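Sanity check record (used in CI):
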Amino acid sequence: MAAKRTVYHVEPSGERAAAAGVKWQVEAREGRRLLHEPHRTQQEAIAAARQRAKEHTPAQVVVHARDGHIRTAYIYGDTLASPDGRGRRPGQRGGVF
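Expected output for DUF2188 domain-containing protein:
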């Protein structure tokens, strides 16, 4: 079975954080640890997420726009790794339940 992929989300931060000058955040679950990194710009957040993804392959970076839709995504390491841990590969139905 393929290894589980860590997914890093780059997304706008909440209103309270934005008032403090933090506009973007990186969120992910690395094993049992929940990652939450604040950044002032989207470019800084993307760079930080991509660096973490390269260090923790297989991984994926999902960049969200201000309105929440997915703008782009980057995949590092095993492209057949399952983001949901069910053993599915791209284009494959079903999986291990």
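The helical segments are 15-19, 42-55. If this sentence no longer matches the regenerated tokens, the check is flagged for review.
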